[in-house]
């Protein structure tokens, strides 16, 4: 009985694997968007709380954070592939 259940579970897992592999690029895209959203929220909070001079500080800060996001996504991509 237990062996039959184990065999059934293995069959289901074998069927799930192609589906999960097909969904992985979509999941990575969603993760990228969520990370970008979190970074933009952090920038917005910093600008609102400290009333920064938007012209002189906000754009370089945004540029640096987007560069950091690019590095993090590259690292994530190499870890997941």
Question: Key terms for this structure?
Answer:
81 residues; mainly alpha; 0% strand
Kindly describe this structure.
The protein has helices spanning 2-50, 54-80. The chain is mainly α and 81 residues long. Helix 1 runs antiparallel to helix 2.
Q: What's the short story on this structure?
A:
With 81 residues, the protein is an all-alpha fold. The protein has two helices and no strands.
Span between N and C termini? 38 Å
- Rough shape? elongated
In terms of per-residue confidence, which ranges show pLDDT below 50 for 5 or more consecutive residues? Answer: none
Instruction: Report the sheet-strand fraction.
Output: under 5%
Element-level helix/strand string: HH
Give the helix proportion (percent range).
over 70%
Number of beta-strand segments: 0
Radius of gyration: 21 Å
Characterize the main sheet: none
- Mean of residue pLDDT? 81
Structural class: mainly alpha
Helix count, per DSSP? 2
Task: Set down the secondary structure blueprint.
Blueprint lengths: L1 H49 L3 H27 L1
Helix pairs in contact: 1-2
